[in-house]
Amino acid sequence: MNTATITRRDLVVVGAASSLAFSAWPTWARAAEPAITPFTYRAPDAALTDLKRRLAQTRWPEAETGAGWSQGAPLVNLRALVDYWQNGYDWRRCEAALGRIPQFRTTIDGLGIHFIHARSKHANALPILMTHGWPGSVIEFMEIVAPLTDPTAHGGRAEDAFHFIAPSLPGFGFSDKPSARGWNADHIARAWGELMRRLGYTRYIAQGGDWGAVVTTKLAQQRPPGLAAIHLTFPQVMPDPVPTTGLSPVEQRYVDQMKRFQTDGFGYFLLQATRPQTVGYALADSPVAQAGWLYGQFQAWTDNTGLPESALTRDQMLDDITLYWLTNTSASSARIYLENFPSKSNLGRVDLPVGCSIFPHEIFQPPRSWAERTFPRLIYWNEPARGGHFAAFEEPGLFVEEMRAFARKARAV
Fold it and tell me: To which H or E segment does residue 47 belong?
């Protein structure tokens, strides 16, 4: 890791050094505030050598006794992924690509927070605060940074431009790991509001999926100065209590999806919500355990044809898996489930303007009718043709179009 304190005088140098274009950086530093420092990461050679050694010494279990993915990642599929991880995958490629995107760290409420901050060259660009979830990371966003910040080079118009901000959740990636309880979604949302204030943004929108949708919803309910609207790909809008009669086909589908998830696919949630430390012991010691834990979610939650490789490349999946491994964040990331347990299928009313993009292989596809009850100012709703839970990762082009379309609505309110 390499960090150095940034000053106003340094801003032009940082921008010029990036492959992205920058202009008119906001006023950041106030004398009494923690510094914002540029951040780059290079994994120690010893850590990569140790990873290869551990992969080579894996003690594999026997094959599963059932067909398909019903018991988790099938042995033959995971062994193929791990063989590529050991013999073909190049973390330095991912590291270099990530290093071309401007990254920083700052301390909020005593915790070091890592974030991407890529500013557009276009005047009147709209700041967008994006939050990932589990088992994701800011790596999900690498392919959307350039088209969002530089739309004229990627099929868009200058008025579609964004300034792009994406923090790593506490305990994830390059953010610090909380050493005590308390970093739940409400706390994270307050920290995000402080981050945007510290960056000098007086009007911005926020977006999230998975836990990012929970944090973004909480942020909207807190209504920090400057937040104008939010966009969600995983809105929590189920009524409480759930109606038992008179449901439309779309509403019934949503209820059925929730019931099915709670009986087939919910095990990871309960483990991480109740025993994150136990989960962490296994995943921190075995890269194959880490790979299997995340690879199974990529299969279950992407818009694939049976194999996750039909939705994400092996390199994409291993970029994310390797980040978890190198930062040893299996236990600390799992604790977001503990901090927010028990979870709710409706987080409550949001009075700010809201947009939703419901991708067809999302874990649940909520009906617009229930979203309108929870979001009385629902200004945008669309159901794209492709994509799943990791929309920006799987379908970056479609995701960018969704953000542009939503932002046009948000700018008008």
Answer: helix 45-56
